[in-house]
Amino acid sequence: MQPRSAGAEGTKFPYQLGTMCYIEVHKDGSVTHGHDAQTYRRVLAGDSQLYAVWPGEWSSHLFVIDDLDEYAKALGIVHDEERTGLAEHQHDVRWELSSLGGQARWHLHLDRGMARLRVRSP
How far is 48 from 29, CA to CA, in rounded Å? Predict the structure, then answer.
């Protein structure tokens, strides 16, 4: 029995499915499980092969993860504008020293005041 191709499913393959079981088979024959950025890098480098078991109601199906671009985008390892709806963008950053309550603090003010980070100066 040969595993099915996850790549053939395109964006319909449920990489993020909570019950999906990822199996990594390393060149030395050892087997591990998981799906993180390190797994992606090993598979991309050719140091291992990645499989996924997609559990069904009556049976489970074995897939080879053969489209690493889709895998990385779906799991957020690589940014994907289509999945997130977030276009690449830049923030304007301005540093200024101010005194609040007698203590000097650094403020990072991001574009449109959406985020503010306060870090005490050394």
Answer: 9
